[in-house]
Design a protein that fits this description.
The protein contains 16 helices and 20 strands. It is an alpha/beta fold and about 450 residues long. Strands 10-11-9-8-7-6-5-2-14 form a 9-stranded mixed β-sheet, with helices on both faces. The chain has a 4-stranded antiparallel β-sheet with strand order 1-17-16-15, with helices on one face. Helix 5 packs parallel to helix 7 and helix 8 packs parallel to helix 10. The N terminus is likely disordered. The structure holds S-adenosylmethionine (SAM) and iron/sulfur cluster. The site of S-adenosylmethionine has 21 residues, from strand 5, strand 7 and strand 8.
């Protein structure tokens, strides 16, 4: 999934006047510069950036495959997903992914190592395990793997038998993200989502016996969910002892996704009820021994993400949180895929037919993106550090590059948003949605901007 982070939760003690003051449009900063700064980018410019990526930035390789198809569309879904097409289209799509790799791989130095492969969607597990294995092998046959690579896939359990899970284990994956959303059948029925075909505990047994890591995804703020029912779901999840849990706050964007209107009719929970769902669930997770990463991730205390957070070295790419071990420059394949290189971003076309047609001409399907200036690369490092690690220390050089307004930072300190000693900016409340406002203060692009952004709350 290359999805924005939708969660927001306020510390209870914050004054209404402060909330009002800071609840103004600011970028989400899931990337820097934000995706609405992407402009037209040619395939030729991307090719140059890929060649340059051999000598600039992290030498490790990270690959992302976007598999846009789903057997059945969930009514809440805000991802880039399409109802299952004819088998021929899916087959053509797989062939195109291989061809896209063949176009990009000759541009990369052969001695660079792969530290991360991620499959998002849509539903990557719609593909046969053998097909997924061939995609993995296409990479592995071209580049060596790092010692402990992360090869992860997002899975919909509604369409997988235990035999399918076993086959997926043999396809080379190290981590499985299972989309549970809720264990409550009435909630799932309302959102048109098929529950797991197998007992989740049986799936866990297969995956654990094969030494795999397991993430579980949940979604709150849906019709028929209550703080109590959602807590029941999370209690059930904890009994399974997953390595990581993500509690996604349901993003209601019916102007983009018409199917969501059905949920509005079914009755969405009020904002305060939704907040209570998250509070109850997160308190339970913390009492059960999980620690919180960012706004919505919960991991075991020995998880490398938590180790990285403690050291101020946590990173994020469009695939989610990562550490220095797994992070790398990202080369994306498939519709909508966004490559994240040291020099900038490049996004593929969102249209499946156009994607297939461009690839059939042996061309790269780049539509838009952004090449970053040196100044923007520095600001990206500073803003990424702040967004992931809740604090950032600015060197004298950094202060020349960012939009450094001491007066405004001191005002934020007075308002209880940050502490600031002249060099280090630290959030007072780690999960504060106003981290976006702090980042905006450091962002030179925000001076006299005419772009529109959403509010933090
Ligand atoms: C691409 S899907 C996961 C893979 C697979 N298709 C599935 O449904 O299990 C990624 C995750 O995005 C989250 N998601 C989808 N729509 C969302 C929305 N409107 N708001 C917040 N999270 C959403 C869901 O929790 C889902 O598990
Ligand atoms: S949540 Fe997953 S299965 Fe459901 S429509 Fe979105 S991508 Fe497809």
């Amino acid at each position: 999934m290359q999805l924005e982070n939708f969660s927001f939760f306020l510390p209870e003690i914050m004054l209404e006047s402060i909330i009002e003051k800071y609840n103004v449009p600011v970028p989400r900063y899931t990337s820097y510069p934000p995706a609405n700064y992407f402009t037209e980018l040619s395939a030729g410019e991307y090719v140059d950036a890929v060649k340059e990526s051999n000598t600039l930035g992290d030498s490790k390789l990270s690959f992302y495959f976007h598999i846009p198809f789903c057997k059945q569309l969930c009514r809440y879904c805000a991802c880039n997903s399409y109802a299952m097409r004819k088998t021929e289209v899916v087959n053509d799509y797989i062939k195109a992914l291989h061809k896209e790799m063949d176009l990009v791989f000759p541009l990369l130095n052969k001695d660079r190592k792969t530290s991360q492969i991620h499959y998002g969607g849509g539903t990557p597990t719609i593909l046969d395990a053998e097909i997924l294995k061939e995609l993995n092998n296409h990479i592995i046959n071209n580049f060596p793997l790092t010692e402990n690579p992360e090869i992860a896939i997002e899975c919909h359990p509604g369409f997988l038998t235990l035999n399918d899970w076993e086959k997926l284990c043999n396809a080379g994956f190290t981590r499985f993200s299972i989309g549970i959303q809720d264990f409550n059948l009435k909630v799932l029925e309302t959102v048109a989502r098929k529950p797991s075909q197998e007992n989740i505990s049986d799936i866990f047994k297969v995956l654990r016996d094969n030494g795999k890591r397991i993430n579980l995804d949940f979604l709150f703020g849906l019709p028929y969910q209550t703080p109590e029912s959602f807590l029941n779901t999370i209690e059930k999840a904890v009994e399974l002892a997953p390595d990581r849990l993500v509690l996604f706050s349901y993003a209601h964007v019916p102007w983009l996704k018409k199917a969501q209107l059905y949920l509005e009719k079914a009755g969405l929970p009020e904002k305060n009820v939704k907040e209570e769902m998250f509070e109850k669930a997160s308190q339970f997770l913390i009492s059960a021994g999980y620690v919180r990463i960012g706004m919505d991730h919960f991991v075991k205390p020995d998880d490398e993400l938590f180790e990285a957070l403690k050291e101020g070295k946590l990173h994020r790419n469009f695939q989610g949180y990562c550490t220095r071990r797994t992070t790398a420059q990202v080369y994306a394949f498939g519709v909508t895929g966004i490559s994240q290189l040291e020099a900038g971003y490049a996004q593929n076309t969102k249209d499946i037919e156009e994607y297939l047609s461009i690839i059939s001409k042996d061309e790269l399907p780049i539509k838009k993106g952004l090449l970053l200036s040196k100044n923007q690369q520095t600001v990206r490092r500073i803003i990424d550090t702040l967004m992931c690690n809740y604090s950032v220390t600015l060197s004298d050089e950094d202060k020349k590059e960012v939009n450094f307004d001491t007066q405004k930072l001191l005002e934020m300190q007075e308002d209880g948003i940050i502490t600031f000693d002249g060099n280090t900016i630290k959030l007072v409340h780690e999960s504060s949605p106003f981290v976006r406002n702090v980042a905006a203060l450091l962002d030179p692009l925000m001076i006299n901007t005419t772009k529109s952004f959403s509010k933090p709350i």
